[in-house]
Design goal:
With about 180 residues, this protein is mainly α. The chain has eight helices and no strands. α1 runs parallel beside α3, α1 runs parallel beside α7 and α4 packs across α7. The longest helix has about 45 residues. The two termini are about 25 Å apart.
């Protein structure tokens, strides 16, 4: 077993916390998509629903279009459909700013901090705060989305079944480089 020196271990920790923050940024994008699904797509799709195949085709088109959007465009789409409340709007605006900074400038802006132990400790704390803000934003969205989802028959059992199916798919996936 190879052990890392303390500096290398701390550098690895910074990267791990950065990855976790970006993961939660992507979770937020998915939560925004789900919100759009329950407040825009489902109400319209139910009116046009004719067959299960038609439903699946419409869903696939909607998902392909919306999920390819940037976080900023997804937030704009929320505004277009009359969502969200002002407090969530502020949280989303801050989350978007943080997400864009993480993706496009974080390590360049933190080059000096990254070069020393105290700076890396500060970066880990900062990344944890950013991750927490993304997580809180997801929770805020879900608090509004899930009651709407339940109106469309989306139950806890369905969520558990979907998670089990995703876990099965993942366990049986073949990865290639």
């Amino acid at each position: 077993m190879t052990f890392l020196d303390p500096e290398s271990e701390q550098v690895r920790e910074v990267y791990a916390h950065y990855g976790l923050a970006m993961y939660w940024a992507q979770c937020l994008e998915q939560a925004i998509f789900m919100h759009l699904l329950f407040f825009e797509h489902f109400p319209k799709a139910l009116k046009k629903y004719t067959t299960p195949e038609n439903w699946a085709e419409e869903f696939d088109r909607y998902e392909a279009r919306e999920i390819s959007q940037t976080m900023g465009k997804l937030i704009f789409r929320l505004r277009e459909i009359g969502q969200p409340a002002h407090s969530l709007e502020v949280s989303l605006a801050n989350a978007l700013k943080s997400r864009n900074w993480l993706a496009h400038g974080y390590f360049a802006d933190r080059a000096i901090e990254f070069a020393n132990s105290i700076g890396r400790e500060d970066m880990i704390k900062e990344l944890n705060q950013i991750r927490g803000a993304f997580h809180s934003c997801v929770d805020e969205l879900n608090a509004v989305s899930m009651p709407a989802a339940r109106k469309f028959g989306f139950t806890d059992e369905m969520i558990e079944k979907a998670q089990a199916e995703m876990n099965f798919e993942y366990a049986n996936r073949k990865f290639s480089v």
